[in-house]
Amino acid sequence: MDERAGSPTELSPYHRFTRGDWAALRADTPLTLTVDDLVRLQSMDDPISVEEVVAIYLPLSRLLALYVAATQGLFKATQRFLGAEDGKVPYIIGIAGSVAVGKSTAARVLTALMSRWPNTPKVQLVTTDGFLLPNSVLEAEGLMEKKGFPESYDGSALLRFLSLVKAGERNVVAPVYSHLTYDVVSDKSTAVDHPDILIVEGLNVLQPSRPGRDIPFVSDYFDFSIYLHATEKDLAKWYVSRFMRLRKTAFRDPRSYFRKYADLTDEEARETALDIWTRINLRNLQENILPTKARASLVLTKGLDHRIEDVALRKL
Question: Which CATH superfamily is domain 14-314 in?
């Protein structure tokens, strides 16, 4: 373990680990995912290797299994003290980070790994995309150019959802988002039914309340939070690369919101992707997402090839 604090007297709220040091914390945790599992879990723009899972996500799943077990034990002790018989309360993990950083793949891999631990057999995943305001509302309010910014979400609905889940309610409904149509699907939803763990993935899930507003915020409901970090230069490169690949695949679907980009030349497509990145996603990162990094329980920092090279774990 490397504190990397700069001097012996300088304090940091985090323990810092190199990739190798963190990988050693796997101990004897078995790999429960196959290569075929990983192919299904990864996204087109964020390939993940078996070695990455073994080095980064197995130690993380081991740590989280310990945290969850401790929380479950504390809950049972409290119930005995109160003489109560309430049901279990889900352990909620938040995953935050920029567009193109690989949150979706990380969330899916972690969901699969955690569901294989004996004390957390039921793990569900929800993305906050479903809580975006419908395009019709965003257009009416002039917010389409700020889609993904905090003000583009139905914050009240998201808070209500998390409150019900944390209260132990059964079958709490979350809306569903389509990346193909780039909009909330009005007639589709998913039910979160009393899981052992709920993983909530989204751009701004670590965003605090605005000054002067005495209301809860999303991360109040988290037991643990993860921030995926990369340099702006790498994120821009990954975003443009993803755009170029989607131009030849999903964008060609007649139902795609981005169908208009499918027939651009390579040069036009790169310029368009970089413009969207700079005008919307980079601005959101700088103004809203990156400032929340310091609020995370764990920060995973990626290098150019998407490998996580640095791990920072908040001290208890």
Answer: P-loop containing nucleotide triphosphate hydrolases (3.40.50.300)
Q: Which long-range contacts (CB under 8 A, 24 or more apart) does 46-52 make?
A: 46/102, 46/104, 46/105, 46/238, 46/306, 47/306, 48/102, 48/105, 48/109, 48/306, 52/306, 52/307, 52/308
Helix (H, G, I), strand (E, B) or coil at 94: strand
148: phi then psi, degrees, rounded to nearest 5: 100, -15
pTM: 0.93
Q: In one letter, which amino acid is 268?
A: E
| pLDDT class of 7 with cuts at 50, 70, 90 | very low
| Distance spanning both ends of the chain, measured CA to CA | 16
Beta partners for residue 165, in sequence order = none
Cα angle: 286, vertex 127, 142; to 5 degrees: 55
Query: Residue 5: what pLDDT?
Result: 42
Q: How many angstroms separate the CA atoms of 171 and 45, rounded?
A: 32
CA 312 remoteness from chain centre: 16
Q: What percent of the chain has pLDDT over 70?
A: 93
Q: Would you give the DSSP letter of residue 26?
A: T
β-strands 183-192, 172-178: how paired? antiparallel
pLDDT at 102: 94
